[in-house]
Amino acid sequence: MNLAEEVLWTGRVLASRAHSKAVVERNAEIFFARFGGHGDEASTLQAVGNRFEMTRERVRQIVEKQLEHLSHAPIRTDCFDQLEEACRRLDAQPIEAAEGVLRPLLGRTLGLIGALDYGIEILGRRLPLHIVSRKDSTPFVVPGDYPDWIDTAVTHSKRLIRHSGAAQFTLAWALTCRDIGSFLDPDEYRRVVQMLPGFDWIDERETWYWLGHDGSANRILARTIEILAAAAAPLDVEIIYGGLSRFSRNRESDVAAEAGVFPPIEIVHGILSRSPCLKCQQGDDFRLLLSPDELKSKEGVAEAVVEALRARSGLASRSELYDAVVTSGGVNAVSFSVALAISPLIRQVDRGVFAIRGWPISAPRLQEAQRSVGGGERGRTVEVEISDDGCVSWIASITEGALANRQTTLPAMAARHLPPGQYRVEGMPRIVTVHPDRIQGVVGALVKGGAVAGSDFRVTFHAGRRVVRLESLSED
């Protein structure tokens, strides 16, 4: 007898006590399928229901009724005992290889995941091994007696690695303690996580660790590859780190909301040095080893902005980019603004001027881009007037983009004299909000007065009084 046959035998014992004789064999087969008898993928409630032409809720009710008789039923464990001993002799290996070694004890279709579930839920015992999922690869079997909290520790480690590139030991330990509701000895936690496949300390002080480059999704590596692909040249780690920091501090995630942890530059250097996709040269420069064919092509808003920058020697003003990406390219204006604010592929070199991260800056091109800053979304030059009493005034037009998004560009010269914040609209019960590079509320107020796309207007701010006056200059 093998474990699959032992599981079916248990199903028959429980079904005979829980159901009428007419359905004992069918319900024993349902028990068998639910605990992996036909393979792990066929053990879900939906898969078992499809197999026996019943709803998933009916499957759940049948198995639940059988489990009510578990404490009084005679259960065989001979085959499970043999499998337990065999698991202790395993080496760390992919789950498919481990199942091949254990196939005579498991049976033809029963898998290790099903055997684990059967041991925990039916026998109250755990096989002496742990199954760790791997990014883009088959799960890995790690033999050994693991504590019940290992799954929680693995989950938090992977979440931290996914968000921060590596897991900070103290934080991963603290989150695990919190979720299991009890204190863990830090040395015991350290001993257990060091047994996981791919485990490696990133720093000599043993404060940050990861599970290998393919052990978990990793935003640090993914964003670095994007940065180097856009730059098309090796970059110093400080340039890369600037892009990663720009992305991370504006990126929401389950970990960011909880901890907001981001590794220091020396940890990022250690992570990048361990990636087979990157080569560290001359100490701090990293070169991308992937060919263009190996890179996963992305066609997002940030990539559209980068293409617009490439067409302008790698540097352009926000107005020039808006005209190319939003007005001509049809990209949503809000998505465009978000890409400029957080994309690691882009860096801001001056007020309203952006460049591809890592590209050299051409002085003539920079001067040309600076001249177009504050020219409205269409790049038209705006003359800003500063009066003796502190009023800041200029004339602009309502563009299609401004009309759609209810915001307009703040000219660079005006931004130097206007503190951000709220301003009351003179003669109207409305509020205008000034941001470092844009204004919200002006377009809405003008549209309320009958303005349309293409309408010219004069805006006059009095910073001291926190008042703004709006004048429509277009003919009715």
From TrEMBL:
> InterPro entries from the xrefs?
RNA_pol_sigma70 (IPR000943), RNA_pol_sigma70_r4 (IPR007630), RNA_pol_sigma_r3/r4-like (IPR013324), WH-like_DNA-bd_sf (IPR036388)
Q: Which residues form the RNA polymerase sigma-70 region domain?
A: 25-71
The protein in question is named: Sigma factor-like helix-turn-helix DNA-binding protein
Q: What is the lineage of its organism?
A: Bacteria, Pseudomonadati, Pseudomonadota, Gammaproteobacteria, Lysobacterales
